[in-house]
Structures are given as structure tokens and as C-alpha cells.
Amino acid sequence: xxxxxxxxxxxxxxGSGPPLRRLAVAVAVAAMIVLSVACQxxxxxxxxxxxxxxxxxxxxxxxxxxxxxxxxxxxxxxxETTSTETTPAGITSIETTPAGSTISExxxxxxxxxxxxSPRNVECxxxxxxxxxxSDGLTVFAYVLLIGASSLPNPLSNTMAMSNGFSTGYTGxxxxxxxxxxxxxxxxxxxxxxxxxRITADANDQYRETxxxxxxxxxxxxxxxxxxxxxxxxxxCTARRA
Length: 242
Prior knowledge:
The protein is mostly beta strands. Among the domains are: 78-108, no CATH class; 114-241, Sandwich (Immunoglobulin-like). The protein has one helix and 15 strands; from the N terminus they run αβββββββββββββββ. The protein has a five-stranded antiparallel beta sheet with strand order 11-10-13-14-15, with no helix packed on it. A three-stranded antiparallel beta sheet has the order 1-2-3, with no helix packed on it. It is elongated, with a radius of gyration of 46 Å.
């Protein structure tokens, strides 16, 4: 809106003249400029912040890296995340990826052929007081085979668990020509019953194999009704894949 100054003519008096008129005109022009500026819309009022204002590197909810501008929607820069993973063999793999992406698991175990605990040709025997602690002893003979490779860089970790609560671990190398022995106790409550014995080769998944489904067997041992004071060899038993 343009405001025009209103100049009132007054009766000339003695001593008045052109200088007074010029002063009146100047005052009127100054008033017009002040009014014109006052009527302009504020740069920050209803129109909000200026388009060039920008807030960067702010913290939104405790997360750094968000930028906020008045030119468009808020953009969030994905933060990097670090994942630490421990493989079954105890080897740690660390990967850093952008947030929201999928982390692919890296198998760092040594690659071999295949370890097989065979359910074939399994034999069992009983010996009274045959264990080192003097308890009656049960021995299971089974083959731990290595297929597709000639040797392993380190021995296997094998386990034996019996239904009477006994469990133990062994270390050793596969041998395709000779059986491995797994020993445990026969307890007083076991006579006249069947004992279940579970044996697992590479129990800690130390090696990457072509098949992980043939590492365990379950042996069922049939015991006499009463404790025998003599060695029983062979002791009746059967084996199956577990």
C-alpha cells in the first residue's frame, strides 16, 4: 500500500518561504518511507524461517547424522553398525555394514571331506571293576571315519553320554582301519535294563563337512538281570544313526 503525504497549505507568515516548504516535503517523504517499510511482510513471521536456513549435524533422539532443512523432508543418513560373531569353533568374525543391510555369515572353519561315526560293526563289552575308579566298566567300540581327505590338521572332539547320567569327552583322530573306544560305568540300578549310549564325533563343529548329519550314533546295550562278576565280551548291543 502506498501512502501519499498530505501537505496542508498554511497562510504565509513573515519570514516563511521556500526553505520551510522543502522541510515539510522532506518530513512527508520520510514518513512515507517509514510507513512503507512497516507494511512489508516479516521475513520470519508467518512465512516461517528463510529458505536458506539449514540445521545440520543435529542429534535426533540421541542419534547423530540427521540433517534438517526447510527445502524438503528430513533425510537420515544410515549409521554404520558393527557385528561380532563367534563360530562354533570359537573363531570370531567381525563385519561392519550400513544400518538396515543384511549381514552374511562367514564360515571360517577349516574345510575337510566328511567325518562319519558309523553305526555299522559296533561292538560292546562289560568288565567288572574295569574302570580306573574301580567301577564296573562298559566299553563301546565304534569306527570314526574320515571320507574325502587323508588327515585332519587337529584332533576331533568327541563326546559320549549315557542314559544313567554319565557323560565324558574324548579327543582323537579318525581311523578308517581301527575302531575308537568309548568307556563309561555300569551302575547298580542299570542291571536288568537297557542302557542308551549316544556318541558324537566332532561334537564342537570344529570342521566344515560335506554332511553334518552322520556324526552321531545311539547304541542300545542290553544288560543281564543281575550284576555279573565275569567279563561279558561281546555284550549284546545294537546301533543306529542318531
